[in-house]
Design brief:
With 243 residues, this protein is mainly α. The chain has 2 domains: 77 residues, no CATH class; 156 residues, no CATH class. Helix 8 crosses helix 12 and helix 8 crosses helix 13.
Length: 243
Amino acid sequence: MESDRALGDIWVYLSTSPLLHLTLTVLAYLAADWLFQRSGRKALLNPVLLAILMLVTLLTLTGTRYETYFAGAQFVHFMLGPATVALAIPLYRHLDLIRRLWLPILVSIVTGATVSATSAVLIAQWLGASRQTLISLAPKSVTAPVAMGITEKVGGLPSLTAALVVLTGVLGAVIGPAVLALVRVRDDRARGLALGVTSHGIGTARAFQISSLTGAFSALAMGLMALASAFVLPAVLRWVFGG
């Protein structure tokens, strides 16, 4: 009994240190990546998914509020900016190829943005979702900062959108390559565009595990998807809601 109380006191003390949750986040990902590598890179053991499950379990068991966790782990969030900028490097390496394919890329992005938002909203509407939920769901395939900004502007719930974006990204990274293989999409450029359009940053990370070319096209699709969605989503929502 005394030992349990002592451990509880130690945890309370450590939980006040910002470095604790940053360290736990890094350790969770390293453990998840180790399991992913040991499994032979099985899609269901995606390291992002495993790390999220580990952290959610830990925070739940310890009764730690998300705000407390984020106060320590926000450095990882900050690094998303430099990491996104760094995606310009593989894009530059394949710039000549991208220039030659600008028209099919543009058509793919606009089509993907329209179909992704329309299908999600119509299915959710058929299932009886509220208007606010539908608005929050529409930008699910856009990278989180842009998706949350769009949702806030059109009257949705940014927090719900953030959760849906993460879920979409994880699902895309886990099942996306298998689905593409099933429908016999083997071209690395097409696979990259598909992953970037449907599952943004998390899908792009998975694309780089396939090849540099797949990752480059996924990064391009992720960026263009954010831009296209800013124009496409308001029109889709006006059409769905009848004006």
